[in-house]
UniProtKB/TrEMBL annotation:
SUPFAM superfamilies: Putative DNA-binding domain (SSF46955). Residues 57-104 are annotated as: Disordered. This is Helix-turn-helix domain-containing protein. Residues 11-59 form the Helix-turn-helix domain. It comes from Actinomadura napierensis. Coiled coil: none annotated.
Length: 104
């Protein structure tokens, strides 16, 4: 990322945040739409504060009431949390690039 005059270096685009977290831009947008990470809607896309996102991802994972009820299967929510866990791990360790891109 280059320094653009007048641009706060803490504010990232979806692509920039995705790179830092080692996720796809689509996954980052889904996390923002689901309220899993703080984001500011700018037209059709989002802007993110790196510090705010890191703070949220460093928190222990909080699942909704459906996950607390073992009789309520919620496969959609279960499938969504995978990327969130990976992003949390990267935010905690300060990793900016995916470490497992060589495997398929």
């Amino acid at each position: 990322m280059t320094d653009t005059p007048g641009r706060d270096p803490d504010v990232l685009t979806t692509a920039e945040l995705a790179t830092k977290l080692g996720l796809s831009p689509q996954t980052v947008r889904r996390m923002a739409n689901a309220g899993q990470i703080p984001a500011l809607k700018t037209g059709k896309d989002f802007r993110y504060s790196w510090e705010a996102v890191r703070e949220v991802l460093r928190q222990p994972h909080q699942q909704g009431n459906a996950a607390d009820d073992p009789d309520t299967p919620d496969q959609t929510e279960q499938s969504r949390k995978g990327a969130g866990y990976r992003a949390q791990r990267r935010a905690r360790t300060g990793a900016h690039h995916p470490t497992d891109t060589s495997t398929s």
